[in-house]
Amino acid sequence: PRHLLTLDGLPETALSALLIRAQAFAEGHYDRRALDGIAVCTLFFEPSTRTRMSFQLAAQRLGADVLNFDASTSSTRKGETALDTLKNLEAMGVRGFVVRHHEDGAVAALAGHVNPGTVLVNAGDGRSAHPTQGLLDMLTLRQAKGADFSRLKVLIVGDVRHSRVARSDLQALRTLGAGEIRVCGPAALLPTDATLQGCVVSQDFDAALEGVDAVMMLRLQRERMDEGLVTSLDDYHRDYGLTAARLRRAAADAVVMHPGPINRGVEITDEVADGPQSLILTQVRNGVAARMAVLEALLRG
Ligand code: CP
């Protein structure tokens, strides 16, 4: 595809090719002039630490000119729309846009208005998709467990309903043929649409953990308390917090993942987040390589 808006529908061959290329980048094999003369802008209308910084680093490592758009100090504060903002940056010669927006479908909508040579990457839209997070998560799993996902039991835990990360991870895990995908969380935080098709769904975290090879924790979005979907942080931690004692139910060599930012002491304890089974900072490191692979594929063809 010309843009990367979602992992939904991306063929296994294309997904695996990106992962193989990302692995080469992770090992330091890259051409610092690959995107020479190409301007890339990180266009974020929502906060970010990992995604925005790693895209900037990825573009810089490939030799692109990198612009960082900060909505809070931009003319969007004077009422300029996201589309007008993009079209003005496009007029300056920017060819690649990495876009995060709070509305579902916002990046796809922008893609309908860009010039023929312009490329968009979805860096997270609403609760819909975060495709490069899905990619970096698969790269991390692949490094830890090998390229054959067919025997893997993977558990995704927490606020799946509002999570674009979970949607992209689920799509990628299905495409790569994961052996068993389990999903666990309180009923109020589980989606009721087709998102969980084919997954083993449970509200019992202890039971869901039995024998899994990877536990992918999700951030409890604190605003869910205002919506009444979570009663208290203490209750959430008691029922869905990953502790060292709980983790012992998983396979002995199970890995723990979390997209960040983490709520320490809520969905995960310090002991687990910083422990030997945690790949949380490996995920972050892989984010640069995965994003290099995406920028190269879209901007060099
Ligand atoms: N995982 C992730 O998307 O983090 P940021 O919101 O900090 O980019």
UniProtKB/TrEMBL annotation:
A Pfam family = OTCace
Q: Where does carbamoyl phosphate bind?
A: 50-51, 100, 130, 133, 260-261
Catalytically driven reaction(s): carbamoyl phosphate + L-aspartate = N-carbamoyl-L-aspartate + phosphate + H(+)
Domain (Aspartate/ornithine carbamoyltransferase carbamoyl-P binding) spans 2-143
- What PROSITE patterns is this protein classified in? CARBAMOYLTRANSFERASE
> Which pathway is this protein engaged in?
Pyrimidine metabolism; UMP biosynthesis via de novo pathway; (S)-dihydroorotate from bicarbonate: step 2/3
Residues forming the Aspartate/ornithine carbamoyltransferase Asp/Orn-binding domain are 152-297
Enzyme Commission designation = 2.1.3.2
Cite the record's note on assembly.
Answer: Heterododecamer (2C3:3R2) of six catalytic PyrB chains organized as two trimers (C3), and six regulatory PyrI chains organized as three dimers (R2).
Protein known as? Aspartate carbamoyltransferase
UniProt gene name: pyrB
